[in-house]
Amino acid sequence: QYELRTDDITMICMFIESIDTARPQMYEGMSTRVLDKKAIMASKKNLTAAEEGDDTDDKLLPAGGNRPVRHHVSKEKTKAIEQMRRRMIAERDMSDVQNEDFDITTLYTEKSESEKASIAEAIRASVMFQNITDSQKEMIFKVVEPISVKKGDWVIKQGSVGDRFYIVDHGKFEVRIVPEGEEDKDGSGGNVVHVYVGSRETHAHPSFGELALMYSAPRAASIIAQTDGQLWGLHRYAFRKVLAEQSERKGLMKVLKKMAAFKTLDKEDIENIAGSMEEATYGRGEKIVEQGAVGDTVYVICHGGHVERTEAVEGEAEPKKTELKHDKYFGEEVLGPGENTYAATVTSLSNTTCWKIDKMTVKRTLGKLRMKRRASGTMGTVA
After folding, report:
1. What is the pLDDT of residue 377?
2. b/e for 251-280, b at 16 or more Cβ within 10 A?
């Protein structure tokens, strides 16, 4: 008997010399899966959670022989992954990620509702995604990259360092392993141990590479496309950015509640608007908005930001100047109905990053929320 797991693969072997036939009644009524689980658990007593490898729930294992497959992550593994995840969202760890030269907005791509549903279904079973908020989930939808593959493409090569988690949209992908101590002499990637099959028609979207979201480690298997297909890829830095912005967006929600344009909205509305806002960085001396110019975007200054607001007042010789820093906002006046102009010129006094959102995105976000509430029969007040 053995247990098969995919991506970072651990194989647990049990060599059975004989079977005690004197007590068959104790197993009567038990399914093969139950017996397999008992055997597996017995063989795991001396393994730590860190030694267990990656637990990927995989219902697509080809039949043939008795191959017990883990359908649920063990309690020990769940606890270990959750502890690692909490360490990842610790303040110091996240601040290091914030300093990475990695612009998360470069990964943003629009997804259809059916594509979002496929991605959501794939990540639902993963411990890594169990505690994310709806706004974080929307961010993950944005940063997941569509990856087209051709038959014969190597998605992952055994021994290479992984940095992405993959979801199969459609296509067939072989999992191959070169046994330890052996060489891949023919360049095939080793023995085929599993095949992933993704299909839009059957809503089958298996995933692999989950551990790459937590740390850099050599891949334990190769993944090779057997047909043309498409994958969704989530980069580790993008995932960490999403986790890092959790606390930031909570602060952002408090700022949004102060704006007259959003005061009538409830918590879910505000959370969705905060989740739809994007970052933009401006260099020292750069003019962000100009008084009298037509606009449609409101800005919230991020931590470390520093700008100057200059407003020319009719009848006064000198313009009115105000310095704005972290958690201050500007441009709210253009969110009203119709065409509106900015009331003041805002210039960056240092390298400044702002959250921003335009009027159309606000309407689209609240419109989707209204449709969702109508469909679920929980229609609330949406301004």
Report:
1. 59
2. bbbebbeebebbeebeebbbbbbbbbbeee
pLDDT at 320: 94
DSSP string across 164-228? EEEEEEEEEEEEEEPPTT---TTSS-SEEEEEEEEBTTTTB--EE-GGGGT---B-SSEEEESS-
Grouping H, G, I as helix, E, B as strand and the rest as coil, residue 263 is coil
Specify the length of the chain in residues.
383
H/E stretch holding 114 reads helix 113-124
- The whole-number pLDDT of residue 50 equals 33
Give pTM, 2 decimals: 0.48
DSSP string, 46-70: T--GGGS------TTPPP-S-----
With H, G, I as helix, E, B as strand and everything else as coil, classify residue 292. Answer: coil
Determine phi and psi for 229, rounding to 5 degrees.
Answer: -175, -170
Which are the contacts of 54, defined by CB distance < 8 A and separation ≥ 6? 5, 6, 7, 8, 9, 10, 210, 211, 220
Q: Is residue 173 within 8 Å of residue 225, measured between CB atoms?
A: yes
Residues in the chain where the model's pLDDT stays below 70: 1-11, 15, 17-104, 244-247, 369, 372-383
Which helix (H) or strand (E) segment is 307 a member of?
strand 306-311
CA 314, distance to chain mean position in Å, is: 50
By C-alpha distance, which of 104, 105, 100, 53 is closest to 81? 53
Whole-number Å distance between alpha carbons of 142 and 78: 27
What is the model's pLDDT at position 15?
Answer: 66
Which backbone phi and psi does 49 adopt, to 5 degrees?
-60, -35
| Rounded CA separation 162/217 (Å) | 6
pLDDT one-digit tens code per residue, 97-154:
444 455 667 778 889 998 998 899 888 877 788 777 777 888 899 899 999 999 999 9
Q: Which positions ≥6 away from 355 have C-beta within 8 Å?
A: 252, 274, 277, 278, 279, 299, 300, 302
Q: What's phi and psi for 201, nearest 5 deg?
A: -65, -40
Record the tokens describing residue 85, joined without a space.
């995840």
In this prediction, residue 343 carries a pLDDT of 95
Residue found by looking up tokens 């310095």 in the block = 323
pLDDT value of residue 276: 82
